Structure to design on (233 residues):
């Protein structure tokens, strides 16, 4: 629910600089759809921050999952884009980590980005080396694609990312896997773009779909939608 926010801001940073942040609230329906997810938290919050400077940009997000007992898990990513040239490529370094047996991961590689003239359409690809600490096979790779489409005078936004990477892991049934795929397309209705709505009401409502194969300890394909709100600063 984060990478696309980074990509859009990254493009704008290359043009003239950008600072932005948002908070998202997601009501997760996975627990209602799958018996195997009967302990999955219902609620997730995401906090994102992006800041551009003369040498590129810095981005981070923090996810927290909640049960009726409080915070059940947490995960965060922080990345740095380095760019000293006009070509649509940048150098990329990143750290991923969290609670509940999530191993530290360190990534490095390159980002290619494209946009149309008004940034209403964007696309990006990252090709990364991924070192997963304490994994049986720590040296891996990751491919990431991101996209966004703003339409109808900015009233609606379709966005998302897709990650495919190699990571030796075992599911809850004891089966071994070497590859993971996850994608999180989002659809947002941006309320302040509608007539008679105050421009300062930076609230969006919508949904995110988590589409994954062999992710975490799961076996096979999962489709997990959310109901979501986002406030942009």
């Amino acid at each position: 629910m984060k990478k696309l926010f980074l990509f859009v801001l990254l493009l704008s940073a290359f043009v003239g600089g950008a600072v932005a942040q948002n908070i998202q609230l997601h009501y997760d329906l996975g627990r209602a759809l799958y018996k195997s997810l009967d302990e999955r938290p219902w609620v997730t919050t995401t906090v994102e921050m992006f800041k551009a400077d003369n040498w590129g940009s810095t981005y981070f997000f923090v996810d927290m999952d909640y049960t009726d007992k409080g915070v059940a898990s947490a995960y965060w990513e922080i990345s740095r884009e380095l760019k000293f040239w006009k070509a649509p490529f940048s150098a990329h370094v990143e750290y991923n980590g969290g609670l509940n047996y999530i191993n530290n991961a360190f990534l490095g590689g390159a980002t290619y980005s494209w946009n149309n003239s008004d940034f209403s359409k964007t696309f990006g690809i990252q090709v990364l080396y991924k070192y997963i600490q304490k994994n049986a096979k720590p040296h891996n790779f990751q491919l990431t694609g991101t996209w966004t489409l703003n339409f109808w005078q900015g009233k609606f936004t379709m966005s998302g990312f897709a990650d495919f990477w190699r990571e030796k892991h075992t599911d809850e049934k004891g089966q071994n896997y070497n590859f993971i795929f996850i994608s999180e397309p989002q659809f947002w209705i941006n309320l302040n773009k509608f007539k008679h709505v105050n421009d300062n009401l930076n609230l969006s409502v919508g949904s995110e779909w988590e589409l994954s194969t062999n992710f975490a300890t799961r076996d096979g394909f999962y489709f997990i939608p959310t109901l979501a709100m986002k406030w942009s600063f």
